[in-house]
Amino acid sequence: MSTREHVPTLKASGLGRQVGGRNARRDVLCDAGFSVPVGSVTALVGPNGAGKSSLMRVLAGTVDSSHQAHVELDGIDLLGLKRRDRARRVALVEQELRAEFSLTVRQVVEMGRIPHESPWAVAAPEVGIVEEAMATAGVTAFADRLLGSLSGGEQQRVQMARALAQEPDLLLLDEPTNHLDVKAQQDALGLLRQVAAQGTTVVAALHDLNLAAGYCDHVVVLADGRVRAVGPVAEVLTAELVRETYGVAADVIAHPRTGRPLVIF
Ligand SMILES: Nc1ncnc2c1ncn2[C@@H]1O[C@H](COP(=O)(O)OP(=O)(O)OP(=O)(O)O)[C@@H](O)[C@H]1O
């Protein structure tokens, strides 16, 4: 009998994506794969154009991938689920905001509940869950304002609130710190840690290697559409990896306060 403990895992394999016309098709993602524990926070890093957004969308099942694509969360085949069933389990916070500028913040956050609503019953979105998601993401103060009237950073937090209202098992975020000031960046990453502590698996595409090093458990390094490295941040984020992946010189030392890796350029 095996004594090995079952470790719930997010496993992705065979993820590919081609773009371009019939005569100019090219792979922007090639057979990408990685495996990380459920309930962890993983940073997806890599240079501009590496394929991070493509990988996020393939993981979320919002774009077509290769026939071999497989994404499994604790044994559940996510890409094999019907769209609505997948939307109950997977939330994707994308870089670009969708055209929801004429809705109020509360209405946008309520949209996170749509996958959970019964198609036969016209029910008001669960108020408690929506209010809690808004409070957690720090957007309650502007709940009745139109999304379009908010700053970029405030809008970003609203997208986060909507994703939280969705109560996903897998939360995917494409550059969630893009519009945020230093404190808001730290708050956002702290919030992701909190969400993961409650069992949600979090994968966030990040450009700031020190946010990845400071807040994430694992890192997936993507370059030219391929996964170059994956593992715990302290093992993967080395000076050599930074040089080879980004072509810049860096030192990686232990952070004097936290002991986590600190990348100095
Ligand atoms: N629909 C598309 N048509 C053509 N090319 C595309 C399309 N989507 C993505 N690409 C190309 O695929 C490559 C990967 O893009 P992707 O947005 O996934 O990279 P990224 O790592 O997220 O980049 P960034 O850090 O700049 O946001 C890029 O070269 C991009 O130009």
Describe it.
- By secondary structure, the protein is an alpha/beta fold.
- It contains 9 helices and 12 strands.
- The strands form 3 sheets. Strands 6-7-8-3-9-10 form a 6-stranded mixed sheet, with helices on both faces. A 4-stranded antiparallel sheet has the order 2-1-4-5, with helices on one face. A two-stranded antiparallel ribbon has the order 11-12.
- Helix 4 runs antiparallel to helix 5 (152-165).
- The longest helix is centred in the last third of the chain and has 16 residues, at 182-197.
- It binds adenosine-5'-triphosphate (ATP).
- It comes from Nocardioides yefusunii.
- Pfam families: ABC_tran.
- InterPro entries: AAA+_ATPase, ABC_transporter-like_ATP-bd, ABC_transporter-like_CS, P-loop_NTPase.
- Residues 10-249 form the ABC transporter domain.
Layout: helices, strands, pairs:
Blueprint: E1 9-19, E2 26-37, E3 41-45, H1 52-60, E4 70-73, E5 76-77, H2 83-89, E6 90-93, H3 105-110, H4 127-137, H5 152-165, E7 170-174, H6 182-197, E8 201-205, H7 209-215, E9 218-223, E10 226-232, H8 233-236, H9 239-246, E11 251-254, E12 261-264
Parallel strand pairs: 3-8, 3-9, 6-7, 7-8
Antiparallel strand pairs: 1-2, 1-4, 4-5, 9-10, 11-12
The structure holds adenosine-5'-triphosphate.
Pfam family, one: ABC_tran
Keywords: ATP-binding, Nucleotide-binding, Translocase, Transport
Organism: Nocardioides yefusunii
Question: How are strands sequenced across the largest beta sheet?
Answer: 6-7-8-3-9-10
Strand content: 25-35%
Give the SSE order as H and E letters.
EEEHEEHEHHHEHEHEEHHEE
Question: Which stretches are low in confidence, meaning pLDDT under 50 for 5 or more residues running?
Answer: none
Small molecules held by this entry: adenosine-5'-triphosphate
**Looking at the structure, what is the overall shape?**
globular
Q: Quick one: how many beta strands?
A: 12
Rounded mean pLDDT is: 91
Give the number of helices: 9
What is the helix content? 25-40%
Distance between the termini: 50 Å
Which value, in Å, is the CA radius of gyration? 19 Å
Biggest sheet statistics: 6 strands, mixed
Oligomer description? single chain
Structural class call reads: alpha/beta
